[in-house]
Amino acid sequence: MTELTLVQAVNRGLAEAMRQDPDVLLLGEDIGTNGGVFRATEGLQKEFGAERVIDTPLSECGIVGTAIGMALYGLKPVAEIQFLDFIYPAFDQIVSELSKFRYRSGGQYPCHVVVRAPYGGGIRGGLYHSQSTEAFFCHTAGLKVVIPSTPADAKGLLLTAIHDEDPVMFLEPKRIYRSITGEVPDGDYRIPFGKARVAREGTDLTLVAYGAMMVPTLAAAERLAQDGLQAEVLDLRTLVPLDEATLLASVEKTGRLVIVHEAARTAGFGAEIAAIVAEKALYSLKAPIVRVTGYDTPFPYALEHLYLPSEERIVEAARGVGRTG
Amino acid sequence: MTAADSLVPLPYDRKAAEQQIGPDWAETARTAFHWMLRARALDARMQALQRQGRIGFYGAATGQEAVNVAAGLVSRPEDWIASGLREQLTALVRGHDLTTYVHHLFADALDPALGRNMPCHPTAREVHYLAMSSVIGTQISHAVGLGRAAQYRHDPSVALAFFGDGATSSNDFHAGLNFAGVWKAPVVFCCTNNQWAISIPVERQTAASSLAMKGSAYGIPGRQVDGTDFIAVYSELRQAIDRARRGEGPSLIEFVLFRMTPHSTSDDPTRYQPPDWAARARAHDPVDRLRGWLTAQGLLDPAQEAEWTRAADAEVRAAIEKAEATPPPPPDSLFRDGVSRGGG
Fold it and tell me: For chain B, what is the domain count?
C-alpha cells in the first residue's frame, strides 16, 4: 500500500499496465516530455520510451482514430484527451467507430481502446475546462463509462479498463486529482466493473453520486447525521455497466433517493437512475426522487460555485425528502 | 479528358509493361482481367437484385476495378486494407470467399457480421480487411494507427487507406495524413477520385488543382495517376507500398477515374451529371482498356474471355442461391458482441 493522490494513482496504474504488457501504449497531447498537463503521465516516457508514450499532433480525432487502428492491429492503446471539453472532434470516432467496431464486425474486430479524459468543474476552468458530459457516452451502446472517486479506485478501475476487451471511457474527476489522498494497493490491483461502492451506510435515505461529487455528498451525509438522518451514500464507480442491484437494494431499504451529479440536469445520468428506480422500486419509495445537479446552462466561470452542487444544496434536498411521506 | 467516346488505349509495349509490373507482367495482367470480369458479373447481378428487392442496397465499383484489383494483387497478406465504399473486390482478390461476401450482401445468418451492416460493408479479418462504417473518412486515421502499430512491433506490414474525392474534405483526411507524416508511418493513402461525391463534382470539392498536391502540406509525396490504367496503377501502388515497407514513410496517390454507375442504388445521377458523362466514362473503362491491351499483346482471345465470364456468372449465381436459402440472423444475435444493457 502506498499513500497517493488520485492523479498519482492514475499514473501508477498506467505504469503497472505498461510493465505487465508490452502491447499497452499511451498517446495524447503533451503526455510525453511534459508528462501531461495534469502530470498524469509524468515520468512514463522516460521509463517506457517515446515509442510507447507518444506525443501526438493537436487533433483529438487523430488521437482516437489512430488509437482505434492500433487496437485493430492488436495493441492496447490508452488515449488521453486533455480535457473532456475538447473531446468533440473525436466524438465521431468514438460514437461511429470505437463503440461499433466489435458489433459491426460480428466480433472479428474488438476495439480495446481506453480513452482517458479529465472532466468536471471546480477548478475555475470556465466553459471549456469544466464540463461533465458523461451522459453522451452512456447513451452510446458499445462503450463502458467509468468514473473513479478515490485513488485506489482510480488505479483499480483503470487496470480493469486497460484489460477489458471493449472500449472504455475513463473519466477522471480533475477537481479531486490532488485534493484527496488515500492508500492504494501496489502492483496489479483491479476493481471489477458494475460494482458500486457503499461509501457510507445508512437507513433513512440514499444519496447516489460519482466522481468529484462524492466529496460534498459525503460531507452532506455527515451534516444530516447531526440532524438524526442517516444517509446511505453510493458511489456508482461505473455508469456503464451500472450496478442496479446495489442501487435498488439501498432504495428498498431507505425508501428515499437523492441523486447528485454536476452535469446539467436535462437528460443527465440522474434521469436514468431515477427511471430505473421508478420502474423497479416505485413501491419502496416514501418520497419523490430528487436530483441535485448542475443547471441547464453552459458552465459558468465566475459563478461556478453556484453551478456546482454544494454540500448545502444536497443537505437541503435531503432534508426535503426526509420530511416527506 | 476528351468528350470522344472512343476507347483510350493503354500506351505500353511489352518491354514497358515488364518495366511497370515486373517479370510476371503477362500473367499478372491476365489475372487482373479475370478478376475484373468477376467484379463486373457481381456488380451487374447485384444491382439487378437490388432493383428486384432481393437485397437492400448496393454500391457498385464499376469503373474502379483497376485500382481494386491492383491493390489486391500487389499488397501482401500482412498488409491491411482500410476501405471506403468501393473496395470489396480488393478483399476478394486477397482471398475473401465470394460466397461469404454474398451472404453479407443478403445480410443473412451466414454473414460473418450477422447482417448488422448494410450491403457492401463486409468484414474480412482473415484478409486484413477492416469493417467499414458509412462515415466518410474515419478509416483514414485507422490506417495510420495500423501503420503505427506495425512500426511499434517492427512488423513489415503496410496499411492501405482507401477513400474517395469527397473524403479529402473530411476531418480524418487532415488528421490522418498529418499524423502519418509526423510519424513516418507505413501507410499508402489511396484516393479514388471518381470525380463525384454523390452529386458534387470534384471542382466544387476543392479549389486545389489536384488532390495529390494536398500531400505536400503534410510532407508526404503525392502522385496523380490514371486510375483506369491497370498497369500504371499497379506500378504506382507497388512503388508506394515498397517505399512504406522500407520505412521511408507514407504516400498519397490520387487515382483519377470515372464513376460508371450511380453513387449507389439509392441515387439518380441524371439529376446532376452532364449528358456526355457516360460517354466520357466509357472511353476510360478500365476493363475495356485492359481487354484491348491484352488482345493486342496476344494474351487474350474472345473464347477465353467468354469462358471466364460464363464461370464468373455461374459462381455468382451459385452464391446467390445459397444466400437465398439461408435464414436471416437469429433474433438473439442482436445482443451479441458488445455491451448490451437490454432496453426495449
Answer: 1
